[in-house]
């Protein structure tokens, strides 16, 4: 999927702000966190001679020999459920100890946005969901049904994600600003 699609789908994790006491304040924290988390799994992508097509993508590929090889390759360990849970725990601990738990839903927003990335990548290729315990990459559909990057599925998911964010902001404005 393209970075725009990942961003649009991942940003929908801000719907969790409707469960907070101060949604207007939480939104200022949750939206940037959701946007960052939705793009973070592609930090291991190599450009393969082409320009990186997403914000911040491929940072780890600059450290060839350290972050490449057995586990660190695109759609490998950074797309796994294991790393998603590790990041959830890190964000939970940061929120609890350093932010005094003022954003109790922050780890959940981060997790939902982060995990949305490998899930929708499974629509167009195989992904290492079970790394590092199982190095086999899994696709969500049979090979003949996989959609290419920038294909029809990518465009439909982008529209769904963008519509979800638009609907969120319209409802937010109606309930909290008007």
Automatic annotation (TrEMBL):
Transmembrane segments: 77-99, 105-131, 152-177
Keyword terms of this UniProt record: Membrane, Transmembrane, Transmembrane helix
Family matches, as InterPro entries: YdjM-like
Pfam families: YdjM
Keyword Aminoacyl-tRNA synthetase part of the UniProt annotation: no
UniProt-recorded name of the protein: Metal-dependent hydrolase
Species assigned in the record: Candidatus Doudnabacteria bacterium RIFCSPHIGHO2_01_FULL_41_86
Lineage: Bacteria, Candidatus Doudnaibacteriota
């Amino acid at each position: 999927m393209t970075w725009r699609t990942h961003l649009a789908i991942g940003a929908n994790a801000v719907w969790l702000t409707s469960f907070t006491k101060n949604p207007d304040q939480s939104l200022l924290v949750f939206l940037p966190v959701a946007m960052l988390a939705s793009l973070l799994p592609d930090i291991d992508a190599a450009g393969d001679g082409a320009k990186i097509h997403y914000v911040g993508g491929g940072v780890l590929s600059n450290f060839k020999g350290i972050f490449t090889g057995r586990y660190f390759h695109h759609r490998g360990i950074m797309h796994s459920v294991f790393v998603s849970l590790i990041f959830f725990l890190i964000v939970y601990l940061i929120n609890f100890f350093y932010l005094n738990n003022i954003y109790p839903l922050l780890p959940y927003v981060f997790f939902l946005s982060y995990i949305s990335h490998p899930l929708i990548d499974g629509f167009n290729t195989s992904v290492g969901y079970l790394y590092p315990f199982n190095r086999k990459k899994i696709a969500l559909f049979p090979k003949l049904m996989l959609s290419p990057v920038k294909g029809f599925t990518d465009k439909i998911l982008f529209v769904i994600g963008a519509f979800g964010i638009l609907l969120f902001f319209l409802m937010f404005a109606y309930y909290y600003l008007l």
